[in-house]
Amino acid sequence: MTVARTLVRARQILEPPHVWIKGHLARDADNKPCRPTDPNAKRFDMAGAIEAAAFDIFGGGQAFHDHDMLCLRHLRRFAFPSIVEFNDHPQRDHAHVLKLLDHAIAVAKVEEQAPAAAPLPAVQAQ
Which residues contact residue 92 at a Cβ distance below 8 angstroms, ignoring those fewer than 6 apart? Predict the structure, then answer.
């Protein structure tokens, strides 16, 4: 599973403007805060959508947790000063969040298609 695939899924989750929120990772239909992995979660902030996307792909467990963290680290490169502060900034709106995700997806796709760096040759001690 790739970071790009998970970020694409997170973007799909956030695509409808009414789904995106500020202030909490996720909220249920009654607007109560909940975990993004809760089946009752209906609305998400950017970090919550990434967690929900990773859970959709991995279904839980250590692989889910590791991939969620990998995606958040990747996205953190573009969200200043942090993902939560980017999402919750008073001047940010839904379009800003989608634009940031689009950028992060594009970079992830390029990085995932780049050939792995060749290992450095061993150096003989003299």
Answer: 22, 86
